[in-house]
Amino acid sequence: MSLTSYNGWPASKDQAEIGIKSYPVPGTTIKLRCAEKVAPLLVGFAAEFHTLIEPIDTGGLDDWGYCYRMVRGEATKLSNHSSGTAIDLNATQHALGKVGTFEAGKVPMIRALAKKYGLTWGGDYKNRKDEMHFEVNIGPAKVAELVKKLGLDGVNNE
Ligand SMILES: [Zn+2]
């Protein structure tokens, strides 16, 4: 049986099976583990977030990508981290469930960047907010199109 996380991307405990690799975020000392196909979007987003919103490589190691688990508080709904299509940035500063953890003036830029890279921001969740969290909200064909359009084809893993 093949599993998917709730955005429809393949999820697995076996990282190799779904192409999870480690990607350095340009301009930072951070690496993010994510799925190969969406890595250019997540990594490109993280690099711009670092430059335009706030640095992601200061303080503790609190930036994450792939992690096989359920959505916190749910028994059967696989988190998008399980497919390597979601990242958390500066998690300690933007805790799950907290609102207004970013300066209000930066929120429009966060939304614009998320949109540019085909992502949903957890701060825009209708119910429980998750301001550290960004996830891919488009399917494989649209991802490929967007990667090409943004000129991100050459993003490399280590
Ligand atoms: Zn998350």
What can you see in these coordinates?
It is a single chain. This protein is α+β, with helices and mostly antiparallel strands. It contains 3 helices and 7 strands, in the order ββββαβαββα. The strands form 3 sheets. The chain has a 3-stranded antiparallel β-sheet, covered by helices on one side. β1 (3-4) and β2 (10-11) form a beta hairpin. α1 (39-52) packs antiparallel against α2. The protein is globular. The chain starts with a strand and ends in a 9-residue tail after the last helix. Residues 81, 86, 88, 130, 133 line the site of zinc ion.
Secondary structure layout:
Blueprint lengths: L2 E2 L5 E2 L8 E5 L6 E5 L3 H14 L33 E3 L18 H10 L2 E3 L11 E4 L3 H10 L9
Antiparallel strand pairs: 1-2, 3-4, 5-7, 6-7
Helix pairs in contact: 1-2
The structure holds zinc ion.
